[in-house]
## 1
Amino acid sequence: MSQLQTLARRFPPGFLFGTATASYQIEGGHDVDGKGPSIWDTFCLRPGAISTGETGEIACDHYHRWREDVALMRELGLGAYRCSISWPRVLPSGTGARNEKGLEFYDRLVDELLGNGVRPFVTLYHWDLPQALQEKGGWAEPGVVDAFGAYADLVARRLGDRVSDWMTLNEPEVVAYAGHHVGVHAPGIRDFHAAVLVSHHLLLAHRAGAEAIRAARPAARVGIALNLSPCEPATDSPEDLAAATRADGYLNRWFLDPLHGRGYPKDMVALYAPYFDRARELDGYQGRLDFLGVNYYTRRVTKAGDGPLQLERVEREGAERTAIGWEVHPASFRKILTRVHRDYAPREMFVTENGAAYDDIVDDDRVDDPARVSFLSRHFLAAAEAIGDGVPLRGYFVWTLMDNFEWAHGTSKRFGIIHTDYRTQRRRIKSSGHWYRELIAAHRGAHVSAAAT
Ligand code: FCB
């Protein structure tokens, strides 16, 4: 039996193999058919915001090429596809009048997915807030919570007869801090106070959105996608150990605790006291996630330092890294999955993103990406080990279907298992895509023959 077949057999029958994307990163069509601008449309125009000077105005032109893209998913044999809805495409001003043409786009996409045997997992917010809401204060203003609830209601009513799996938000930590503290993401604000408030409004919005989806569609399954990582101390000094605990509180527990009925973690509420006094608003909230989505790329190593969190990130010398500079550390993937299961026991878990940027070798019809094949093999193995540890992992979405607009890096970082030629919009399946197709086929084959014997 080949290594790939052995790996495939470690995933239980019914395990979902998918890929993930996000609306702003692939759709393009930024101003067509009544779509309103998002904060990313605005942010990309700010000089210096995107390292390549690009925008996502065209991206992969998926808005026009969705049929071809779904055909590629079928070719890979994907069982599921995680995509996001562009809020300003369906509600150009964020609230109020809906854009029928935008809703029809997602109708067609969902129908095409289902017609090709691909189960849609829909994220409501993957970072493209309507600019009109930003002008009222965006995520830092409490009115955004009800606006998100109304948006969730609209989309769940419209698509919920065909979509059963929902994620309210993608990576609230990144929305809050990359967008409002470090300022490298839209809306490009640098204010820690605002960032903590935004993280709170995001959690309130998750609650409002989940309630709206369940009210509209009682059978819906509602989750969220969090970016989680083990946080390791740089040394075993008490100062660095304490810094790692703060990093874990900031990145993991601040979101996991209130989503699992525990309210905000007390140590972090104390640390944030100069910035934030609304922690009690989530007291008593039970969370009740149907599933937890984990996005994992790398681990975090920290030492004691400055700033509101009094810590500094440490990059280990000589570590294996991807083309975006992130350390490759599959053991941490198993570790975070088993830790979340042990400490929080979510009913079901999905890997909602995992993947890697590499500079691929393009040669006419072939796009070779052995480094990505190696990355994915090792991370799928780590996930299989986590399943062996008892983690209720039900599916795995590779980031990402095709090379796309990687936020502040523009198109310079390629994460796809399909290559995108941005000049011609030609798509070519990379060797990692072929590897994935074989893994999926081997999994299917193993369970079909097991069922027959
Ligand atoms: C995650 C984002 C996703 C993509 C990957 C590389 O943080 O959710 O959109 O940019 O990183």
## 2
Amino acid sequence: MKCHKCGAAAVIQMRQHRLQLCAPHFIEWVATTTQRAIDAYQMFTPADRVLVAVSGGKDSLSLWDLLLNLGYQAAGLYISLGIDEGIDYSAKSLDMCHRFVLEHHPEARLHVVDVGAEYGQGIPVLARTRRRGQTKPCAVCGLVKRHIMNRVARDGGFAAIATGHNLDDEAAVLMQNTLHWQTGYLARQAPVLDERGGLARKVKPFVRLYEREAAAYALVRGLEYIYDECPFATGSTTNFYKELLNRLELTSPGAKQQFYLQFLRARDAGRVTFAEGGDLDLQPCARCGQPTTAGGICAFCRLWE
Ligand code: AMP
Ligand code: FES
Ligand code: ZN
Ligand code: ZN
């Protein structure tokens, strides 16, 4: 298998692009693809300070590495959730983030927020003792992560929060939203969510990259990352839809990309429209000052009551 650009040994074949590349050309291709997405959706510019939410996994560490190499002002944020579950999940993933900085970008700044130390309880305990976390801690966890990301972005004056969501993540969510015709979610599912009412701007620079490409990037760049998924994510609906889409992709390469990117194009061109379902009336929470639709005290603050 030879690189289509230079004829050297290729390290990856991307059937959906009918392209196979050697290591240096693959790195270059990931950078160009990501830069194009950043420009196309006007995510941020080199003048902006960006907060990259890093989980210790391949997507977010690859993203952070790439943004730094592209010359962006990118600081990292790791939220320690206190998840052990016999595999030392949170401690190991934090370690990956520290090692990333030490070994690859000693100049980079990593912000760490430890939920247990700062608020008194980690996610597993918090979820077990709250009604909304009884079945799975993921909803509580999502709420906590969103709140902390927003807080750090606001306090630190960052122009945007960047997450490592890739095309597989987005296509799986799109499939789920479509199968349930969740039009409000379909209206909001986007590579960029603008700042509104005190909610920081959110961007996903890897939306055009397959998960497998983000993993290959990490491998080729020699980035160490945590292979384990969050132990609570096994059997999640998102993973189920990802598998379905991957089966489709096997028989028709590019199906995943087609599904998601054509949705974005159709919606952005106004060929399909979805209503958000009522204006979001955001008010500052009486305790923490972060925006909430509930009026009074936000869902995050109510968690700790
Ligand atoms: P997930 O929902 O686990 O697929 O993660 C989606 C994105 O959220 C990742 O790519 C990261 O950018 C971010 N993220 C997930 N977990 C954390 C964490 N513990 N700390 C900071 N960011 C995170
Ligand atoms: Fe939050 Fe798994 S990362 S429950
Ligand atoms: Zn090459
Ligand atoms: Zn609050």
## 3
Amino acid sequence: MTSLREKLAEKIPHMREEIARLVADHGDKVISEVTVAQAYGGMRGVKCMVCDTSQVDPDKGLILRGTPLAQLTHCSPEEIFFLLLTGELPTEKELASLRSDLAARSEVPKYIFDILRRLPLSSHPMAMLSAAILALEEGSKFRLRYNEGMAKTEYWEAALDDALDLIAKLPVVAAAVYRIRYELGDLIPRDPQLDWSANLTHMMGVPDEGGELGKLMRLYLALHADHEGGNVSANLCHVAGSALSDPYYAVSAGLNGLAGPLHGLANQECLRFHIAVRDEFDGVPTKEQLTKHAWDLLNSGRVIPGFGHAVLRQTDPRYTALRDFALEHCPDAPMVKLANMMFEVIPGVLTEHGKAKNVWPNVDALSGVLLYSYGVTQPRFYTAIFGVSRALGMLSQLIVNRAMGTPITRPKSVPTAWIKEQVGTY
Ligand code: NMX
Ligand code: MLT
């Protein structure tokens, strides 16, 4: 038994009891209404699902289990995972136990690397990562135990088992995607002395003499883990998991959504935007030049990646955390200087454009810039790193949902004819 499992086993009965009481006593209280615009508009702002791991406040941004992100930027991704699941940061002993459990589960079967090598080199790293996770599904303990007739009260334990297996293997798989996709030579074995995020940096094999890429990777993997339940990746994982598809299927579903340019792929798109600007102006442009370039992009019908958000109405605190890192470690890196210029110019352009409800930068406005500055120069790989981190949040949410016995997700859809009848004027 790991201490994480023990801690959850202790907490889950109380959580179940509390929610059962809440629903029994107040089940018919209205917490949200749905307008016609929301039904057609991606359900924006409709409060119709529960997520206890984290919440996103429009002005304050990400709050993990009640603690604002700014107070957690020193944490490792493993600590964030423990916090998301249990509501508490681990003690030193609990962290050591989680790390050794992950290390013990980290071996990836050889057939996974064979599959990755057989995919065309033109494959997107996100497709490779998602395919590898689906191929790992063969080892799902949740599916096995479900087929054996496991009790509903045990679902969370089987989900936790799969989650730990998958999390342990993800850095190995992602590093293999990187080295195979970009033909960087032999795979680099895991170093048992290193923790989860340090191993990803190590196995990717990007030179990191000063250890700064390692520090960035640790921060990056901690920052991107969770962003409440309604974002596309978490929501997709939630919906697939609600059908009792096992954690491998559910995480793969979530990553397939993360691969969209309006969601996690903005990470890659944003760096490509920076490269296009740098190449056009041979470095950092003037404000006037960047303003014109941004307007050209908007007038061609495209979005400016790295800016705007469905929930946030201020600068994303994850962006602020990355900006603090950049100021401390690499303020003079050319891409960082360009990103600073973007920060000065783009919100004004978007305000004048008049469409985006939030003109401020999100996490993707700096994440790729920093990776690039430390030698990870393949933008298409960036969302795969986002995905490794997001798996921590998606899996935490999934385990909590299995523990709470959350039923299958099945909202009611209505045809346009029905809406016309409701509004009564058509
Ligand atoms: N550039 C240009 N137009 C924008 C932008 C932007 N950065 N952000 C929003 N808009 C437009 C949006 O396309 C919509 O236009 P239309 O009415 O023609 O459909 C209008 O402004 C209103 O959109 P909002 O309600 O402000 O934003 P919404 O909640 O629909 O979408 C995003 C949120 C994040 C999808 C949107 O802001 C966007 O496309 N941003 C750029 C892509 C990006 O950075 N995504 C990453 C989000 C974070 N993540 O990691 O997932
Ligand atoms: C995320 O991290 O999931 C993004 O910021 C998108 C979102 O929250 O909708």
